[in-house]
Design brief:
40% helix, DNA-binding, homodimer, globular, 11 strands, 5-stranded parallel β-sheet, 4-stranded antiparallel β-sheet
Chain lengths: 222, 222
DNA sequence: AGAGCGTCGTCATCGAATCGACAGGGACGA
DNA sequence: TCGTCCCTGTCGATTCGATGACGACGCTCT
């Protein structure tokens, strides 16, 4: 199973490469976007892990190139920043999934496995935590088989929390993720209110939204 | 039951072949359009699954060839892009049904079953949801045995919703599917109006068109 | 060609869902 | 114990979607 890693931060790149190799993957790594395109041009990878910001070519250019040329590789983007606009651009360009930094390596492994298991683009990755299942493509949240009606904002926040579990997500990250106008809700209690509403709608979903005072929020399995 | 798979993307081809074999089909696979024609020339398949874009010959050429030579094989096209023009070209060439990538494998299975169930040329409705039957080839909608008169635009939108059930279909997808000029109706409320008309024409068809505020629309069985 | 019909986009209006502001109270840490 | 941070109920503004009316356009039939 061949994986291409395109990431310019040497530390992170090494972690990913070594971790994947430990798990039996055959891994190539590049640190520039144009090098990534070259590799994709000449070799068939099953999965490519592509950083958003890179010298040479942006990650999104790499994704767009791969899609345009109909490469058979599943594309997983790594994004450091995370605004709705960015996310939409990434998925529109043809990424199959994305991970927001910082991420848990186990999570990366799980998504790589999910990507290699399915034909490109065919089945959306479903996020699961506890008794909750969250389908980003169907935009559907299900607890114990029953759909839960979330508003757009609630959904975005929950998705972020689930994707980052078990890390603490700070208010700034939440604001950037769920609001296009990145900083507006920081001065207000809009985030608090949304959290309250989320907790009310997901009373016993197999996890809790835990407040980490002064730092942010975190999802915790019960 | 013999099936021919013509698909150049190795990953997708393998998934389809293995999946069909798991379900008891005898499967042959090729990766080029001209090879597909050769196979169809010498063997009788019940169903052929044919990718639109392939090296050698385009999928549409394969379909046209099979029709011209009166092969007894039901033809299912796989199309990546999805504009009204493409779709019409495919069906005009003689495909019996089509699937838009990305698709769910269960959906593929269902359509293969539907195709093998009917003798070629005798058109049976292929899409069914609740008490609604929808025939993509004849562009006909039937509820409880009674035909419902839908306009072209209404039909296209309903078809998309049915095919994607139970996923949420966003306005952009609807616009691209039902309007050749992909972005025009996004700034207007044309989509809302069409939805309203659809709902009015299909009052108790065994499903509801559910609005997912801020995300799109979704078909829900009653 | 012209009448008649059907289709579809636009507009205006209405209703409802959503979301942030606010405020009072509670929890936590120093 | 005090100050700060957080929780949550209520309320109103705003946005978003639904729907009826209208008119432009294209087709068909005569």
């Amino acid at each position: 199973m061949r994986v291409l890693v395109a990431e310019d931060d040497k530390g992170l790149r090494d972690v990913i490469v070594l971790g994947l190799q430990d798990n039996g993957y055959r891994v190539d790594a590049v640190e520039r976007g144009d090098d990534a395109i070259d590799q994709l041009k000449w070799y068939e990878y099953d999965v490519a892990i592509i950083d958003w910001r890179m010298p040479g070519r942006e990650g999104i250019d790499v994704v767009a190139w791969a899609r345009k040329h109909d490469r058979p590789t599943a594309l997983l983007m790594l994004t450091a920043r995370d605004t709705p606009a960015d996310r939409i651009r990434g998925l529109d360009a043809g990424a199959d999934d994305y991970l927001v930094k910082p991420f848990d390596f186990g999570e990366l492994l799980a998504r790589v496995r999910a990507l290699q298991r399915r034909p490109r683009g065919v089945d959306a990755p479903v996020l699961e935590r506890g008794r909750l299942a969250l389908d980003p493509v169907k935009r559907l949240v299900v607890v114990d088989g029953r759909a839960v009606g979330l508003t757009a904002t609630e959904y975005l926040i929950l998705e972020l929390l689930v994707r980052r579990t078990p890390a603490v997500v700070d208010r700034k990250a939440i604001a950037e993720h769920a609001w296009a106008d990145e900083t507006d809700p920081l001065g207000s209690n809009a985030i608090d209110v949304q959290m309250s509403r989320l907790r009310a709608k997901l009373p016993s979903a197999g996890f809790r939204i835990v407040t980490v005072r002064g730092a942010g929020y975190r999802l915790e399995e019960v």
